[in-house]
Amino acid sequence: MTLSPEQYQQKMQRRKEVQEQRLAQASTEKGLIIVNTGNGKGKTTAALGMVLRSLGHGFKVAIIQFIKGAWEPAEKAILNHWEGQLEFYAMGEGFTWETQDKQRDIQHARAAWEKGLTFITNPDYKLVLLDEINVALKLGYLDISEILTGLAQKPEDSHVILTGRGAPTQLIETADLVTEMTLIKHPFREQGVKAQPGIEF
């Protein structure tokens, strides 16, 4: 059914009133625990969008990479422009099928968590991104109860983003915002298209 211009205007007016009422009721301010998980692409990319917003507001930000540390992503090159406002640590050596050394992977994951915790508990940092930590949790390299205890120590107004597929149920229950990226179609799988600069790295 096609709406007349008058019907459309009435519909949009009702929508505006509902939205304004929702905004008026949202009065709480708090730092968030944010989880980006799922098998689809875009978990880190979405988190980096929040990083850029925070940097744009002048906030201090820390990024800790748990798994992809063997990569030198283009994101790291561009984020170097915020020296003094951004701390970036690539702690892993690469994907687990690359290293093939579980004990070494566990040591790197633990070191990354300890580094991340120093920023999570530091009130000077408004946002901390723990990139691919969910993978380390899924593989058993880190203990979820220790992570939840650490997250509980964050200042009330700071935010922490945890990315990676396979986020544990306890983390999802604790988080304030959870987004699951669903894989519907991927060029590598369906078409054999290799990873490309500007898209995957």
Mean pLDDT: 89
Taking Cα atoms only, what radius of gyration do you get, to the nearest Å? 20 Å
Assign a percent range to the helix content. Answer: 40-55%
Q: N- to C-terminal separation?
A: 45 Å
Q: Residue ranges: pLDDT <50 for 5 or more in a row?
A: none
Q: Rough shape?
A: globular
Task: State the strand order across the main sheet.
Answer: 3-2-4-5-1-6
Strand pairing plus helix content: what structural class? alpha/beta
Provide a descriptive summary of the structure in words.
The protein is 44% helix and 16% strand. The chain has 201 residues and is α/β, with parallel strands linked by helices. The chain has a 6-stranded parallel sheet, sandwiched between helices. The N and C termini lie far apart (45 Å). The relative contact order is 0.20.
Give a short synopsis of this structure.
The protein is an alpha/beta fold and about 200 residues long.
Which key features would you list for this structure?
201 residues; 16% strand; six-stranded parallel beta sheet; single chain; 6 strands; alpha/beta
